[in-house]
């Protein structure tokens, strides 16, 4: 018996069952899905805590800023009358007592922040540069420099509060009794000297953080650059100006921003040092908002001041990041144009 086999025509394709060894398309495996979802699962507790600790209170504070929330509505703050933008208008009315006090507190905070951040950065950078070269006892000095940063804030500030006492404080004992720099013992926790006392405490506990960050940034600068500069006749000042500071620019950008936010929002230092009623010369905006909210029981106005402070910090942070990123891109673009010309 003869069998005929049908041959495929020139324009036709034969379709058959694939053999067991034929390769198939990529298929998403359950293990890959689990690997992708694992990071999100690990971040879930942190996201929930961030939501409960920061985002929810912030939203509630924004809602409270639009209400006439006083001590008469504390038991049920949701029943407080809706005032719209009245709290914000009162806070920025600088001719009225509330707005004038807020403006004075804001200016004091700006001056305190600029001086504290500048001194912290200057002392921390100088100490980190001095500790860069190896010498006997360097490790011990580094550990001693970090003691103010390692101490709890309350313990450190309470210690300084005792040292600033008028009658039996160590500061007056050294300045007046031992060195004779003052005619009589000074009042450091009241009056105009309170600003100096607050600044000293803030710098004392803040500069070790700058020292730690700058010291870590110095480790990434190759020593060959300093050796080559020394062979070319560059002195220590020229090396710091031409090598150290430009190399530390990315580190300093982050460091200054963090110090600014921490210092401008600092509440623990003035509260522990002066108590609920800070002197007018050291009335930081954080203490001022606390007094407006928890001393006078006007939570609506205090919440409006907090929202204004948040908007100001967001604006300053955004402008700072824009300017620093623009400054960082300028040398890179100049180098690219120079390379293209070559």
UniProtKB/TrEMBL annotation:
Instruction: Show the segment(s) annotated as Disordered.
Output: 1-30
CDD domains assigned: TM_PBP2
| SUPFAM superfamilies (UniProt xref) | MetI-like
Q: Which residues cross the membrane?
A: 37-66, 106-131, 143-163, 195-218, 247-264, 303-323
Q: Which domain of life is it from?
A: Bacteria
Q: What is this protein called?
A: Sugar ABC transporter permease
How this chain sits in the membrane, per its record, is:
Multi-pass membrane protein
- One of the Pfam families matching this protein, by short name: BPD_transp_1
Q: Where in the cell is it found?
A: Cell membrane
Q: Is the keyword Phosphoprotein in the record?
A: no
Family membership noted in the UniProt record: Belongs to the binding-protein-dependent transport system permease family.
Instruction: Specify where it is mainly localized.
Output: membrane
Instruction: Determine if Transport is one of this entry's keywords.
Output: yes
Pinpoint the ABC transmembrane type-1 domain residues. 106-320
What keywords is this UniProt entry annotated with?
Cell membrane, Membrane, Transmembrane, Transmembrane helix, Transport
Among PROSITE patterns, the record links this protein to: ABC_TM1
């Amino acid at each position: 018996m003869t069998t005929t086999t049908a041959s495929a025509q020139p324009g036709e394709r034969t379709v058959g069952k694939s053999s067991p060894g034929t390769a198939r398309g990529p298929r998403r495996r359950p293990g890959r899905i689990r690997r992708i979802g694992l990071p999100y699962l690990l971040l879930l507790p942190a996201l929930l805590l961030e939501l409960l600790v920061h985002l929810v209170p912030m939203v509630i504070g924004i809602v409270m800023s639009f209400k006439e929330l006083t001590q008469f509505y504390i038991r049920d703050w949701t029943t407080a009358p809706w005032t719209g933008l009245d709290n914000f208008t009162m806070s920025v009315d600088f001719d009225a007592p509330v707005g004038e006090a807020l403006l004075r507190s804001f200016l004091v905070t700006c001056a305190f922040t600029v001086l504290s951040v500048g001194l912290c950065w200057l002392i921390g950078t100088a100490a980190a540069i001095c500790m860069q070269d190896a010498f006997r006892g360097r490790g011990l000095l580094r550990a001693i420099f970090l003691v103010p940063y390692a101490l709890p804030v309350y313990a450190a500030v309470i210690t300084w509060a005792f040292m600033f006492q008028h009658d039996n404080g160590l500061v007056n004992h050294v300045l007046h009794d031992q060195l004779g720099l003052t005619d009589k013992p000074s009042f450091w926790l009241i009056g105009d000297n309170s600003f100096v006392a607050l600044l000293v405490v803030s710098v004392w506990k803040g500069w070790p953080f700058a020292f730690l960050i700058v010291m870590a940034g110095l480790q990434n600068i190759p020593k060959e650059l300093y050796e080559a500069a020394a062979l070319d006749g560059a002195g220590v000042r020229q090396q710091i100006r031409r090598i150290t500071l430009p190399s530390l620019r990315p580190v300093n950008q982050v460091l200054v921003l963090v110090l600014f936010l921490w210092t401008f929002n600092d509440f623990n230092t003035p509260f522990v040092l002066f108590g609920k009623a800070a002197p007018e010369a050291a009335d930081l905006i954080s203490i001022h908002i606390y007094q407006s909210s928890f001393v006078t029981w006007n939570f609506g106005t205090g919440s409006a001041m907090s929202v204004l402070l948040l908007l100001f910090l967001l604006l300053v942070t955004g402008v700072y990041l824009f300017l620093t990123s623009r400054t960082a891109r300028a040398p890179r673009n100049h180098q690219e144009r120079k390379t293209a010309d070559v």
